[in-house]
Design brief:
single chain; about 110 residues; mainly alpha; about 70% helix
Length: about 110
């Protein structure tokens, strides 16, 4: 898992809004299409049946679409290079540092 995580920032908000809107949009569109086709083929009763079938098909297509989109975003996240924090060399860490005595300097 990478250290660069966009889920908690505004940078990743757009992609998660897109994922969140896929399922309801799919259901609404398929209900509308099912209603129109059902009304054309079966009148008022066909419109109700078509809307129900459209809702089920829309739910299935929406869930599949969300699944595919999340897989795509995970693949992008894995391919992104990981930014490692700066680590100085061990010699620099072990080095004995002498700080100047400022009190003697300004007396």
């Amino acid at each position: 898992m990478s250290n660069h995580h966009s889920g908690g920032t505004f940078a990743g908000a757009g992609r998660w809004c897109a994922v969140a809107s896929e399922l309801p949009c799919s259901v609404v569109i398929m209900v509308f299409i099912g209603h129109l086709l059902g009304q054309t083929w079966g009148g008022a009763q066909g419109a109700i049946t078509g809307a129900m079938i459209g809702a089920i098909v829309g739910l299935a297509l929406g869930l599949y679409s969300v699944y595919i989109t999340i897989q795509y975003y995970d693949k992008l996240e894995q391919e992104r290079p990981v930014m490692r924090p700066f680590q100085p060399p061990q010699e620099e860490i072990d080095e004995d540092v002498e700080f100047p005595d400022y009190k003697k300097r300004y007396e």
